[in-house]
Amino acid sequence: MSDSKPNIVALMEVLARAIVEAPDEVFVEPFEENGQTVIELEVAESDVGRVIGRHGRTARSLRTILHSASLRTRKRYQLEIVE
Predict the structure, then answer these.
(1) Could you state, in order of their start, the residue ranges of all structural domains in the chain?
(2) CATH class for the region spanning 21-82
(3) How far is residue 3's CA from residue 16's CA, in Å, rounded to a whole number?
(4) Which of 79, 82, 70, 83 lies closest to 31, judged by CA?
C-alpha cells in the first residue's frame, strides 16, 4: 500500500510559485514549533505584495488552503510569510 499523505510543504511551494513573478526565488522551509509545523514562505522582495495580496486576501486564501489540506494529516500547520 502506498503512502498517500499529501505533501503540504510541496503544495505551498507550488501555489507560491504560481503567484509570483520570480518563481526561482521561492523558498519554503518547514520547522516544528509548539507541536505544530510552521511553514516559512520566502519570496523575492518585489513579490511580497503579490503573496500577501490586497488587504491580505491572498495570504488568507493560502492559509485556508493550508488548513483544508492539513485536515487529512490531522496535524496543525501555520504559514508565515517572510518579508
Answers:
(1) 21-82
(2) alpha beta
(3) 25
(4) 79
